[in-house]
Design a protein that fits this description.
- The chain is of the alpha/beta class and 358 residues long.
- The chain folds into 2 domains: 239 residues, 3-Layer(aba) Sandwich (Aspartate Aminotransferase, domain 2); 101 residues, Aspartate Aminotransferase, domain 1 (Alpha-Beta Complex), CATH 3.90.1150.10.
- It contains 9 helices and 14 strands.
- The strands form 4 sheets. It has a 7-stranded mixed beta sheet, sandwiched between helices. It has a 3-stranded antiparallel beta sheet with strand order 11-12-14, covered by helices on one side. A two-stranded parallel ribbon has the order 1-13.
- The chain binds pyridoxal-5'-phosphate.
- The site of pyridoxal-5'-phosphate (PLP) has 12 residues, from helix 3.
Length: 358
């Protein structure tokens, strides 16, 4: 029996997807070989790649004025690719700082441009998204970067800001969890291993007019235009991860698309937050309006009980609930592939553990 997996990433994948991958592992659709063993230039793989792109475009209603790229290097490589492509060393770029991934994105950008941290909730330990009125955006920023969902702190933008500069969003831990109006963004990127597929792949959605402006000296492999012109096959792409992401996208379409995911994800998160809020034993550190639908950090009244909580969870096959070392406590990640049954089982366990130790 499969466990209930609340891992922040690499994270749970749908059973149906893994079963299909297993069935096709040795002999992909009668071709007599595994997807892992195929040329990325073969007709079979090019079909896999193109269907994944088409399905992603359909699921998020992405227009032809955007490139959709499937590249390696993770979201962390985008921390560098964004400034390489969208600005010059002397340009100012705005960053809104709502957590640990923002810290890393800012550190990378500081090597490549003049960073203005337009707003930060660091002083309150990243418990919120700073109110829009308090942001100090630059007059001529090349772009404005946000982390749509801070995976570690569990802080999420529920509304996206209007900015004069192109808006760039790290959506690693939320892409495909809800509908998003892509036209509001210059660049959206997401490491796949949270909500899209396995590790090794990063999805990048780039407005075409922003590609082709990379600064001189940009390595070609890091140039959005080069990746776009080559259909993300400038070099060998992560073929098996791309294939698995494609299976996830088909599963998503079958399950009702992102609007349905949004409904279910909201229901899952609402129940869990309600259980946490109803108890004095558990505590959510994030301000209510900015709480993440995907990653729910919570603490126990007595941290000395943390290990007993995790041990008891594991006995019930509730896995990977330990919070990030920078925050402590617990974190339940509720990505698309985490079932409502998993969340219900977790909520029952919260009550049982409190009854024994509260
Ligand atoms: C996991 C994560 C990253 C880092 O992803 P890598 O693929 O490991 O580079 C960046 N940003 C956010 C929001 C994440 O959740």
């Amino acid at each position: 029996m499969r466990a209930f997996n609340f891992s922040p990433g690499p994270a749970a994948l749908p059973d149906a997807v893994l079963e299909q991958a297993r069935d096709e592992l040795l002999d992909y659709r009668g071709r007599g070989l595994s997807v892992m063993e195929m040329s990325h230039r073969s007709k079979e793989f090019v079909d896999i790649a193109q269907s994944a792109e088409a399905d992603l475009r359909e699921l998020l209603a992405i227009g032809d004025d955007y490139h959709v790229l499937f590249v390696q290097g993770g979201a962390s490589m985008q921390f560098a690719m964004v400034p390489f492509n969208l600005c010059r060393a002397e340009d100012t770029v705005d960053y809104v700082h709502t957590g640990s991934w923002g810290t890393k994105a800012i550190a990378e950008a500081q090597r490549l441009a003049m960073v203005n941290v337009a707003a930060s909730s660091e002083e309150t330990n990243f418990d919120r998204v700073p109110a829009r009125e308090t942001w100090r955006l630059s007059a001529n920023a090349a772009y404005c970067h946000i982390v749509a969902n801070e995976t570690i702190g569990g802080v999420q933008f529920h509304e996206f800001p209007e900015t004069d500069a192109p808006l760039v969003a790290d959506m690693s831990s939320e892409l495909l969890s809800r509908p998003v109006d892509v036209t509001r963004f210059g660049v959206i990127y997401a490491g796949a291993q949270k909500n899209v597929g396995p590790a090794g792949l990063c999805v990048v959605i780039v407005r075409r007019d922003l590609a082709g402006r990379a600064r001189p000296g940009t390595p070609r492999i890091l140039d959005y235009a080069v990746q776009g012109e080559n259909g993300s096959m400038f070099n060998t792409p992560p073929t098996y991860s791309w294939y698995l992401a494609g299976l996830v996208l088909k599963w998503l379409k079958h399950a009702g698309g992102v609007a349905e995911m949004d409904r279910v994800n909201r229901r899952k998160a609402a129940k869990l937050y309600a259980a946490i809020d109803a108890s004095d034993f558990y505590h959510s550190p994030v301000k209510t309006p900015d709480r993440s639908i995907m990653n729910v950090p919570f603490t126990l009244a007595d941290p000395a009980l943390d290990q007993a909580f995790l041990d008891g969870a594991e006995e019930r096959r509730l896995l990977n609930l330990k919070g990030h070392r920078s925050v402590g406590g617990m974190r339940a990640s509720l990505y698309n592939a985490v079932s409502e049954e998993a969340v219900d089982t977790l909520i029952e366990y919260l009550a049982a553990f409190e009854a024994d130790h509260g």
